[in-house]
Amino acid sequence: MLTTDHFILTCFDHGYKVRMSTLYHVLVGKRTGSVLVYAFFYHQMRYFGLLPNLNRDVYDDVLARLVANEFLLQDEMTVQLTLKGQRELTRLRALPTENICSHRYLKIDDEFLDLLLFATQVISHLAYVEKDYTPIEVRVDKQRFIRSWLQSQPSDRYVLAEAFYQEWFSLLTKLPIEETTYWTKRLSGHEKIGRTSHQLLTESTTDAFAVFLCEKNYQHHLLSVLEQDIVHLPMMRSLRKGLTHHPYNQSMLETVEVIKEKGTLEAVQTIRRLKYSTVVDHLIEWAIYDEHYQTWFSLAPETTAKLKVYEKQHPMIRDWRFKDVQSVLPEIEFYEMRLFQINEIRVEGRR
After folding, report:
1. Backbone dihedral angles phi then psi of residue 336, each to the nearest 5 degrees
2. Mean pLDDT on 275-290
3. Where is 122: in which H helix or E strand?
4. Which residue range or ranges hold the Helicase Helix-turn-helix domain (predicted)?
5. What is the arrangement of strands in the sheet containing 72-75, beginning at the earlier edge strand?
């Protein structure tokens, strides 16, 4: 089986019957409420925006092959994993995707790792008082960024180099041996020219998509370790914080700040002059991203209690339609239903 087909098939391993087209929108990163909710409901958020240039015809061809091989069952506009598909996934070797977290590291993974490797090269040559070398980063804005960043680091080149070396050592000890080897071979510096990701990963496979997945898996694992270690990696973390890009919708972040300050969606609508539906979409989006959102916005206890009763009568929570909920509970608002679903599915995922 082609790696692309294998990957797409794994995206249906949740077993639910779902629309064929929505996964495509998840993979290319279409930021709408319905796409984000789908990605969250069916545990695909980590692939959100992973393949921004995926051609729709290519995606449709993959689905057609999976259906033709009876790995997926198609019913008009929906598909569902078959027993044969489950067995095929069990038979196949798992793809290297366990650390991929595209919704968190979208837009920053390549940029940060390029800067980290470039900073390593610059610091190494500084330690040896070498100015005549070919930088691995030729973009002027990135060179300027590193020069500015270095001004906030230890001025003594030997102290700087030792501290950065210790951070690399601390970081690499938290990674599996194959990832440690990969990153070590990528480093450039004094009397050392690092190898590219393509050079390293094509030693074991010539499958371009498999190489891509492996690279993202390594990148995102390193970024995850960096986020979690708030003690031993201050220089690397400061480099990361210096990036202006983040994976979030800026307008959504502004909405969240107003909600935190004012406490109501109506206040956001007035202050930011947004449609109420847009404010609701922003709230739902942040609830998906931030599992701690209830510290500043939570459903009323009586609302939760009513929806709990409804859930007992309609346990397939992912299939709820607002008009059905409202026919029984006319006082419930759309965002309340969505937040309840998000909360329940998040708890379900921890069991």
Report:
1. -65, -40
2. 94
3. helix 109-127
4. 251-340
5. 18-19, 78-81, 72-75
